[in-house]
Design a protein that fits this description.
The protein is α/β, with parallel strands linked by helices. The protein contains 10 helices and 8 strands. The strands form 2 sheets. It has a 5-stranded parallel sheet, sandwiched between helices. It has a 3-stranded antiparallel sheet with strand order 6-7-8.
Length: 285
Amino acid sequence: MQELVDRPMILAVKGHLQKPRVEVACKLAKHLKYPLIDQDEITSVLQTSEHFDEISFDIVLKIASMQLTELKLAVIISTPLSQDTHFDKLKHLEKSAGAILVIIQCLPKDGSSDYDIGGVSKLTVDTTKQFDVEDFVLKELDKVKKRIYRHLHALTFSNKPNIETRLQCKRCREVISGPSYQCILGCDEYIFDKACAELQVDLEQVRKNCPDYLTRREPEYLFPRELRQNCNICEYNGREFSDSCHDCLFQTNLKATDAMIATLICMSAAFCWHEPFLTTMTSIL
């Protein structure tokens, strides 16, 4: 029985050569026990149709949609994925079904991807080598399945879109029309629709564009080690100097500014020779 997951996966195994593509798809389906939908099988029945490629792909999506939305099962789709419109339809299915789309491209090691799939996880299988399904699942696919999301700022979830401001998702650049995530600090660089926010792949890139004033930094003042002074409390408790301890900072400032204080006192004394002042200065020095 197939394992149920909180967000089903769409494994689209693509490649222009049918034999290696189907081999990879079949091995993955047997190992993961996911339903396999082969577009070539449907296409062969529709050869007499003028638009058999488009029709067969739409049929594939209909079957996959039922598995994803009604049964919450992951699916494997074997498809040439030769048209950009087909890829766009896969992305739409991913979003509507709340799934995770992964493109597994089957091509020689020296081959290159035929188009950019920004925002979607992409794995590559070298068709010049024997496909080891267990090794592939363990080393490549499991990394995607873990979906570990890390964010420097806490995100707040909103079920309803803000129609007045017409917020734009920072990943897909489309106006958000449904549930969304936004930085709780109000950072304009962290606004995503629900589907984009729950993808691990692009957050690292967006994080690089975070405004400087929201980036965690080291303290502006870093005292040289020889000037750092423990306060009595920290010393009693066996703790080292801490720039978060006010008493440690006070003692360190005193040591760092002793020379400056003495200089100021001498300069003041040069202009004032009254006895009370000299008595006070003598007691301090």
